[in-house]
Amino acid sequence: MDEIYKNDCNWPGNDALMRQYHDLEWGVPLHDDQKLFEFMVLDAFQAGLSWKTILYKRENFRREFDNFDYQIIANYSEEKIQELMQDASIIRNQAKIRATVTNASKFINIQAEFGSFDKYIWQFTGGITKVNNFSLLSEIPARSPESDAMSKDLIGRGFKFVGSTICYAFMQAAGMVNDHLLTCSKRRI
Q1: What does pTM read for this prediction?
Q2: Strand, coil or helix: 130
Q3: Does residue 21 register a pLDDT over 50?
Q4: Taking the domains of the chain in order of start, what are their residue ranges?
Q5: Residue 43, Cβ neighbours under 10 Å: how many?
Q6: What are phi and psi of 178, to 5 degrees?
Q7: Which DSSP symbol is given to 133?
Q8: Is beta strand 177-178 parallel, antiparallel or unpaired with respect to 130-131?
């Protein structure tokens, strides 16, 4: 690994796109509903796959899912769903594609109830970033009591592909949890 990254989180390796995501996005507190929906979609598609696979297809997802515009996605027709199923530039998983359409509709419902999805989702960490103090990647959990609670509530509201592990990955991506290692130069406290 390059000398400059020797003390950083090592999961991105030397991959330039993964490193850019780690350095600029992962763990940065996010309060924009459009971007929160994007991470929700991408984390759902990641289930059973590597983040690298999803990250390398992110621009394709952005293009094919109308720039993650949940207002448009909530109204996708069966024809559009079938079109997406034929698109090799994204992950062609019918259950995940249909879940994205369902989740867009549920996302809008939450906005109507809470004023924003941001206000709703950040309640699971009390409105602040939960800062963890891990020295090794092996110490980072796959889930937490907060992600368990988030998952349970989202499922109760009709969301799909929002198990606790997916919710924890979402929390990391959205900066609700800071899991940068103690030695990482990108750790923000």
Answers
A1: 0.94
A2: strand
A3: yes
A4: 14-178
A5: 23
A6: -105, 105
A7: -
A8: parallel
pLDDT attached to residue 183:
92
What are the structure tokens assigned to 31, written together? 């309060």
Give the model's pLDDT for residue 187: 85
CB neighbours of 43 closer than 8 A, spacing ≥ 6?
166, 169, 170, 173
Q: Which amino acid is at 38?
A: E
CA–CA separation, 61 vs 144, rounded Å? 28
Q: What is the pLDDT of residue 2?
A: 45
CB atoms under 10 Å from CB of 85, counted, come to 13
Contact (Cβ atoms closer than 8 angstroms) between residue 68 and residue 34: yes
Residues 6+ apart with CB under 8 A from 14: 1, 2, 5
Whether the Cβ atoms of residue 44 and residue 90 lie closer than 8 Å to each other:
no
**Domain 14-178: CATH superfamily, name plus number:** Hypothetical protein; domain 2 (1.10.340.30)
Question: Could you tell me the two tokens for 50?
Answer: 């590597």
Q: What is the C-alpha separation between 3 and 110, in angstroms, rounded?
A: 45
Taking the C-alpha atoms of residue 49 and residue 93, their distance in angstroms, rounded to an integer, is 12
